[in-house]
Amino acid sequence: METLTIAYGSTQLPLKIAMYNIPCFILENKQRVVTIKGIQEIFGYDGKSEFWLLNIMIAVNELS
After folding, report:
1. Whose CA is closest to 45, among 61, 33, 34, 57?
2. Cβ neighbours of residue 24 under 8 Å, at least 6 residues apart?
C-alpha cells in the first residue's frame, strides 16, 4: 500500500462550512480526506458503536 503525504490542510485550519469546522486534507494525489471524528462531531454523535455511520444515516433519514 502506497503512503501518501498531505499536500494541503491542517488540524489547526479546518474547512469551515456554516457553523461547522471539519478537519479536511488534500493528499498529494489530489484525493480529499475528512476524518471520521470530524464527521461524527458534525452530526453530534459521541457514541462508541461500531455501527455509528448506520445510526447517523438512520437519524438523518428520520429528519427528512
Report:
1. 57
2. 9, 14, 15, 32, 33, 34, 38
Work out the widest C-alpha separation in the chain, in whole angstroms.
Answer: 40
pLDDT 10s digits, 5-45: 999 988 888 888 778 888 899 999 999 998 878 877 777 77
User: Torsion-angle region of residue 9: left (phi > 0), alpha (psi -120 to 50) or beta?
Assistant: left
pTM assigned to the model = 0.59
Phi, psi at 44, each rounded to 5°: 70, 25
